């Protein structure tokens, strides 16, 4: 494990593997290494094929520190430090809401050379003001377990019975541990959703890009991916058979291999 120091002094912890063109994996809400073995497996497989891979805990998660107040710009600064550590250029692979960070980074001039976006969850006009207020209220009272349940049921729409089952699993404490970061991702997504001209913000992103969705995922994810792909001048759109909101490591590697070595 290695660390970099972001512009605001926050320590970001990451795993680096392999040698070759760099790929940095940007997780979505609640994703970090202690919970997300699939991304680490994909990174290891890709590294064996001649790439440098970076999997990191985003600020406020796992082994990485946090510094208030949160902002999307600070998340981009974290990526800038990581990209600098691997030579100054990297492709970004993002999962779900991690696309907000990846796309912002692509417009920031920090060495992003390509974008592979899996199911960016942007829905024009979807207003999360009430959800953000509810989450912040729960977190301010220290009710992290309740905040995680609220996010899964009310924000995402997972049935309560399924969430109760999740709460009995061994990984639940690790999920609750990162509940304070739920508002980071939701705020980033909300800002995009309520921007009436949100597609225009990415018109200048001309690096190669692929936007993917799974054909077994949540309703609306394919349409969201369509919209993001249409907003990126160079994007290719790809639907992955048999995949839900979290693709298997083998599929992640296949997408990246095809994208990086056409």
TrEMBL record:
SUPFAM superfamilies xref list: alpha/beta-Hydrolases
InterPro entries: AB_hydrolase_1, AB_hydrolase_fold
Gene3D superfamilies found in the cross-reference section: alpha/beta hydrolase
Superkingdom of the organism of origin: Bacteria
Domain AB hydrolase-1: 23-248
GO-annotated molecular function: catalytic activity
Official protein name in the record: Pimeloyl-ACP methyl ester carboxylesterase
Organism in which the protein naturally occurs: Streptoalloteichus hindustanus
């Amino acid at each position: 494990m290695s660390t970099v120091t972001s512009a605001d002094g926050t320590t970001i912890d990451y795993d680096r593997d392999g040698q070759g063109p760099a790929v940095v994996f940007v997780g979505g809400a609640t994703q970090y290494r202690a919970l997300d073995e699939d991304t680490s497996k994909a990174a290891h497989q890709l590294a064996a094929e001649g790439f440098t891979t970076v999997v990191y805990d985003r600020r406020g998660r796992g082994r990485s520190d946090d510094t208030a107040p949160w902002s999307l710009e600070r998340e981009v600064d974290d990526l800038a430090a990581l990209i600098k550590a691997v030579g100054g250029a990297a492709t970004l692979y993002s999962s779900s809401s991690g696309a907000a960070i990846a796309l912002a980074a692509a417009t920031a001039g920090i060495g992003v050379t390509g974008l592979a976006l899996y199911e960016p969850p942007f829905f024009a006009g979807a207003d999360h003001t009430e959800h953000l207020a509810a989450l912040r209220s729960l977190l301010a009272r220290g009710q992290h377990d309740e905040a995680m349940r609220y996010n899964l049921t009310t924000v995402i729409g997972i049935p309560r019975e399924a969430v109760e089952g999740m709460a009995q699993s061994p990984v639940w404490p690790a999920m609750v541990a990162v509940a304070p970061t739920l508002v980071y991702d939701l705020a980033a997504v909300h800002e995009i959703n309520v921007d009436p001209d949100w597609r225009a913000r990415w018109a200048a992103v001309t690096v190669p890009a692929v936007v993917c969705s799974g054909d077994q995922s949540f309703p609306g994810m394919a349409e969201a991916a369509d919209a993001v792909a249409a907003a990126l001048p160079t994007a290719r759109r790809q639907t992955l058979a048999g995949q839900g909101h979290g693709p298997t490591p083998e599929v992640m590697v296949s997408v990246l291999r095809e994208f990086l070595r056409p």
